[in-house]
Design brief:
The protein is of the alpha/beta class and 379 residues long. It has helices at residues 3-8, 32-39, 60-66, 139-153, 196-205, 244-253, 315-323, 333-339, 343-349, 354-373, and strands at 43-48, 70-76, 94-95, 102-105, 124-128, 156-160, 216-220, 273-276, 285-286, 298-302. Helix 5 links the parallel strand 6 (156-160) and strand 7.
């Protein structure tokens, strides 16, 4: 496929984002009448980060403290409690400078799950993190481990729900259980079209926690939200998803994490551009200041003005593979981990088109939709 065709060809969107609803979306944390009474007299551990904010920008931890909720500790996921750490960077335990509350890392040294020791002085775990609705985005893995720890240690788990900016469609292959990892834990498509609260209900209900245990789960739902609601995130969910465009393209461009190509990290446009010095000249170049290809001029593709695909578009990675100088070095082992199996890599190597590959996903998606329907909280 030529470059111009790559930029112009898009699979029709299966479910369009609806116009902004008249009533503003209210996240779960703002439904205080549903949960403050449940937290009275309880020792609370808060699992969250910089995205855990109210509509006025106030952090949920600060709000809960102002309402007399007894928060005894904070658990922090990838990127840390304040969201400043780079992807994959080890997060250390610390004390939150603003509140003086101990912060326990859930990312680094394989410490993904709250320990029994850390939960001894806890009655309730509150999870409130903005997600982007992709299987390989690790916050849902953190949610799974939090639920598992709650079940194993007899602690209640409460999810303050938030909208999913990619919640208006479902797409991608179903994870092969043999490739289960922190970037893919469950047999779901890459884009699963559910909020964190709905996903938690599914993980619990389907027995996907270790040994089939179930946690004492309460979901505080959003108000004025449906899966067709267009929702612009008030805070970037992580350092390299800084714009609505990057969030929309993330399900399609994250595949480059499993290749030598830059996905735009170290530039002003992460997950809005991709490129490599081993691609042919395209008329667009960039030089990453960090991450892969640091300090090296890359020939690439600029998608900042491209329409949102509304699906997982494999055209980008297929075009890059077809035009890469060293094909035998294109796919790293992590590519199969991200994909949740070997099939996509083998299909690309065999010369299948994006449309042909996506067609092979349909049976798995159809089955998943039956499971998904049991746990939806929103139209």
């Amino acid at each position: 496929m030529c470059l111009s065709a790559l930029l112009c060809a898009f699979v029709p969107v299966s479910a369009q984002k609806a116009a902004q609803t008249e009533k503003a979306v209210e996240v779960g944390a703002e439904q205080s009448s549903l949960y403050l009474k449940l937290l009275k007299g309880k020792r609370v551990a808060f699992v969250g980060n910089h995205t855990s904010v109210m509509a006025d920008g106030q952090h949920v931890v600060d709000y809960l403290l102002s309402k007399g909720v007894n928060i005894v500790k904070i658990f922090a996921p990838e990127h840390g409690f304040r969201g400043e750490a780079a992807a994959g960077a080890k997060i250390s335990d610390e004390v939150d400078q603003k509140t003086g509350i101990p912060v326990v890392s859930l990312y680094g040294s394989g410490k993904y799950k709250p320990s029994p020791e850390a939960l001894k002085d806890v009655d309730v775990l509150i999870y409130d993190i903005q997600d982007v609705g992709c299987r390989f985005y690790t916050y849902i893995s953190t949610l799974t481990y939090v639920m598992e720890a709650g079940a194993e240690n007899g602690k209640q788990v409460m999810v303050f729900d938030r909208p999913n900016p990619n919640g208006y469609y479902v797409d991608g292959n179903i994870l092969d259980p043999a490739f289960k990892s922190f970037v893919g834990m469950h047999p779901v498509p890459i884009v699963y079209g559910m909020t964190s609260g709905e996903y938690a209900k599914m993980v619990n209900g389907e027995g996907w926690l270790k040994d089939g245990v179930q946690c004492d789960l309460t979901v505080i739902p959003c108000k004025n939200y449906t899966h067709a609601t267009h929702y612009d995130l008030p805070v970037p969910p992580s350092p390299n998803l800084a714009t609505a465009k990057s969030i929309a393209l993330y399900p399609s461009l994250c595949y480059f994490e499993g290749t030598p190509l830059s996905e735009g990290r170290g530039t002003p446009w992460p997950f809005e551009v991709f490129g490599s010095p081993l691609l042919p000249e395209t008329g667009f170049t960039f030089t990453p200041e960090s991450s892969k290809n640091k300090g090296v001029l890359c020939n690439g593709v600029d998608l900042r003005e491209a329409p949102d695909p509304g699906c997982i578009d494999l055209k980008y990675v297929i075009w890059a593979y077809d035009n890469y100088e060293k094909k035998d070095e294109f796919f790293k082992k992590f590519f199969d981990t991200l994909c949740g199996g070997e099939t996509i890599r083998k299909q690309i190597e065999a010369g299948m088109t994006a449309e042909e590959i996506r067609a092979t996903w349909k049976p798995g998606i159809d089955e998943f939709m039956k499971t998904r329907a049991k746990y939806l909280l929103y139209e």
